[in-house]
């Protein structure tokens, strides 16, 4: 049975989110709890696919992507806090995005390979939305809560780093698979994605702690 460091970090992030739930509620980030429960379950199943007798774990990640993306978009929506017109545009764009991801998963690239089109498209939008959130937060920055002390900064900053990393590695995934670039029996992109996950979930945990800290401070 496989349970790597990156999975431990994801589990720690979930525990931290539950512990800091009151703070998450204040900052409208409670959707992280079901998201992280889903993440931990999926990573356990996908990480041990050989134990289940499966030839690959692509189908697990492809289905996870369909389930997790709307939750992430909902969280981003709460952080962006667009007005009515902005909300409408945001959800229209993301509805089209989800339609494409669903079509690509079931009809275009399919469930039994890495759906690179979905990853490249979604992560591009995640980076854009997160950069907008950081920019909006920068404009609203005040002496009470500095930018680097705000949970939204750490969530969006790590999302940008993760997204750019995924865009890079997914852009090369077909080449890596075709050329059979392995390291200790695994495709090199698997190590990169695990490192990116490590950074992402450590940042999430720190953001959750900041939520709790700022909530206690303001109460």
TrEMBL record:
Domain of life: Bacteria
Spans through the membrane: 6-24, 31-52, 58-76, 88-111, 117-139, 151-171, 191-211
Keyword annotations: Membrane, Transmembrane, Transmembrane helix
UniProt keyword Membrane, yes or no: yes
Name under which the protein is recorded: YhhN-like protein
């Amino acid at each position: 049975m496989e349970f790597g460091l990156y999975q431990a970090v994801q589990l720690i992030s979930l525990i931290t989110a539950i512990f800091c739930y009151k703070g998450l509620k204040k900052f409208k980030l409670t959707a992280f709890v079901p998201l992280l429960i889903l993440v931990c379950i999926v990573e356990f199943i996908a990480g041990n696919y050989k134990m289940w007798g499966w030839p690959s774990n692509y189908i697990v990640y492809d289905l996870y992507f369909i389930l997790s993306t709307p939750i992430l978009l909902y969280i981003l929506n709460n952080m962006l806090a667009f007005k009515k017109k902005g909300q409408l545009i945001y959800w229209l764009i993301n509805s089209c995005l989800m339609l494409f991801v669903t079509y690509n998963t079931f009809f275009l690239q399919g469930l039994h390979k890495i759906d690179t089109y979905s990853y490249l498209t979604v992560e591009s939008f995640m980076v854009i939305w997160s950069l907008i959130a950081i920019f909006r937060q920068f404009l609203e920055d005040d002496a009470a809560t500095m930018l680097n002390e705000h949970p939204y900064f750490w969530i969006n900053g790590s999302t940008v780093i993760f997204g750019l990393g995924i865009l890079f590695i997914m852009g090369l995934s077909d080449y890596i698979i075709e050329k059979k670039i392995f390291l200790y029996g695994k495709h090199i992109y698997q190590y990169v994605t695990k490192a990116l996950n490590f950074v992402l979930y450590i940042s999430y945990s720190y953001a959750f702690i900041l939520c709790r800290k700022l909530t206690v401070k303001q109460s």
